[in-house]
C-alpha cells in the first residue's frame, strides 16, 4: 500500500490512508445555475464524495455559493489559464482548485494563487493528460509517454513547491489504459502526493466502464490511488455508481449491498436473468451492509454463495431461500423476489 501525504478538501481527507473518495463532475452548462444545483444534489444523493464544476469565466463563479448552499460535500473549481478565476473561486468559498500552475503565466500569478489557497487551506489538483503536454516535453519524448506525463506533472508541482505550497493532488490521465497505468506507477514512485485516478476520454457508458475498471482497478489493487473519477459520456450519477462498484469489487468499500449472481447454465429452470435484474433494481436504495446472492440452481447455489447473508437459488418453477448457505425454505418462483426482499427487510 502506497503511503501518501494527506490533504483536505473541506473536511474530507484525501490520501494518508483515508477512505478512497469517489468524484464526478457536473455536465450542465455553467450558465445554468439552477440546473447545476439540481445535478449537484442528485450526485450527493447518489453518494458522490466530491463534486467538480467547470469555472470557465467570471459569471460561472456564481455557481460556487449556489452549489455550496445546496450540498454538504466538497466542491472543486475546474479552472484553466486564468489565475483570476482561481482567486475569485477561493474568495467564493471553494473547497479545492484544479489548475495547472504552468498554464497561468508568471511566477507572481502562481504565487498569488498559492498564497490565497494556503490562507484558506484549499488544496490544488494538478491535472495533466496526453493532450496537455508542454511542447518541450512532447518534443523530448516524441509522444505522450508515461515518462512525459509524469515529467509534466512534476514540473507543475515544482512551480507550487517554489512558494512552499504542498497541499497538492496529482492526476495523470490518458485515454490509453496501458499508458495511464504506467504513468501512475511512475508517479507513485516519484512523489508522495495523493493521486487522483482516472482514464480520460474513456468513452460512452459501455466501453468507458470497461476501460475505467481496468485502469483504476488495477492501480487500486496494488495500493496506488487516493481518489477516483470514472469519466463517462453519460449521466454523472452513473460515474458515481461505477466508482463505488469498482471499490466494492476490490473490497475497498464494504458499505451498502454487495450483490452477486451466477451466469446461468443449462441446469437453470427459472428466469434467472429477469429475477437477478429485478432484485438488483430493488436493492438500489438499500443501505444495509449485506451480501445478497441470486443463483441459478439448487445444486450449487447455496454452497457457492454460502458467504452471502441472504440469497435465493432457483429450481424447476420453485427456488430455495437461504441464509449463510443454510436453506430456510422452498418458495414458488413467482414469490421468490418478494420473499427475498421481505427477509432482507428483517436483517
Would you kindly provide a written description of the structure presented here, covering whatever features stand out?
The protein is α/β, with parallel strands linked by helices. It folds into 2 domains: 6-249, TIM Barrel; 258-346, 2-Layer Sandwich (Sulfite Reductase Hemoprotein, domain 1). It has 12 helices and 15 strands. It has helices at 33-45, 63-68, 83-91, 107-119, 135-141, 146-161, 177-190, 205-221, 236-249, 272-282, 301-304, 336-346; strands spanning 6-9, 12-15, 21-25, 50-54, 75-78, 96-98, 124-129, 168-173, 196-197, 227-229, 258-261, 291-295, 310-314, 318-323, 326-332. The strands form 3 sheets. Strands 8-7-6-5-4-3-10-9 form an 8-stranded parallel beta sheet. Strands 11-12-13-14-15 form a 5-stranded mixed beta sheet. A two-stranded antiparallel ribbon has the order 1-2. It starts with 5 loop residues before the first strand and ends with a helix. The model has no long low-confidence stretch (mean pLDDT 94).
Biggest sheet descriptor = 8 strands, parallel
The mean pLDDT is 94
Q: By helix and strand content, what is the structural category?
A: alpha/beta
Got a strand count? 15
Strand numbers in spatial order across the main sheet: 8-7-6-5-4-3-10-9
User: What portion of residues is helical?
Assistant: 25-40%
- Overall geometry: elongated
* Oligomer state of the chains in this structure: single chain
Amino acid at each position: 500500500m502506497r503511503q501518501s501525504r494527506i490533504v483536505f478538501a473541506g473536511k474530507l481527507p484525501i490520501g494518508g490512508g483515508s477512505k478512497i473518495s469517489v468524484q464526478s463532475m457536473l455536465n450542465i452548462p455553467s450558465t445554468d445555475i439552477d440546473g447545476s444545483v439540481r445535478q449537484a444534489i442528485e450526485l450527493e444523493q447518489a453518494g458522490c464524495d466530491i463534486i467538480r464544476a467547470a469555472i470557465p469565466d467570471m459569471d460561472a463563479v456564481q455557481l460556487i455559493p449556489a452549489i455550496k448552499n445546496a450540498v454538504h460535500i466538497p466542491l472543486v473549481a475546474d479552472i484553466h489559464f486564468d489565475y483570476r478565476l482561481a482567486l475569485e473561486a477561493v474568495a467564493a468559498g471553494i473547497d479545492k482548485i484544479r489548475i495547472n500552475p504552468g498554464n497561468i503565466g508568471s511566477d507572481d500569478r502562481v504565487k498569488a494563487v498559492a498564497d490565497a489557497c494556503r490562507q484558506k487551506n484549499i488544496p490544488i489538483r494538478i491535472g495533466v493528460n496526453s493532450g496537455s503536454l508542454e511542447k518541450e516535453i512532447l518534443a523530448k519524448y516524441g509522444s505522450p509517454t508515461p515518462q512525459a506525463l509524469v515529467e509534466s506533472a512534476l514540473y507543475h508541482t515544482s512551480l507550487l513547491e517554489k512558494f512552499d505550497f504542498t497541499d497538492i493532488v496529482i492526476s495523470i490521465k490518458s485515454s490509453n489504459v496501458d499508458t495511464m497505468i504506467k504513468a501512475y506507477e511512475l508517479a507513485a514512485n516519484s512523489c508522495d502526493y495523493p493521486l487522483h485516478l482516472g482514464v480520460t476520454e474513456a468513452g460512452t457508458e459501455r466501453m468507458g466502464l470497461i476501460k475505467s475498471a481496468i485502469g483504476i482497478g488495477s492501480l487500486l489493487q496494488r495500493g496506488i490511488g487516493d481518489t477516483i473519477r470514472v469519466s463517462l459520456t453519460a449521466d454523472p450519477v452513473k460515474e458515481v455508481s461505477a466508482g463505488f462498484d469498482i471499490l466494492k469489487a476490490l473490497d475497498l468499500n464494504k458499505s451498502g449491498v454487495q450483490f452477486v449472481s451466477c451466469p446461468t447454465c443449462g441446469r437453470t429452470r427459472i428466469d434467472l436473468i429477469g429475477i437477478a435484474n429485478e432484485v438488483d433494481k430493488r436493492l438500489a436504495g438499500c443501505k444495509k451492509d449485506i451480501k445478497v446472492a441470486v443463483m441459478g440452481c439448487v445444486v450449487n447455489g447455496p454452497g457457492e454463495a454460502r458467504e452471502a447473508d441472504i440469497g435465493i437459488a432457483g429450481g424447476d418453477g420453485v427456488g430455495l431461500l437461504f441464509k449463510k448457505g443454510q436453506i430456510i425454505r422452498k418458495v414458488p418462483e413467482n414469490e421468490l423476489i418478494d420473499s427475498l426482499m421481505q427477509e432482507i427487510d428483517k436483517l
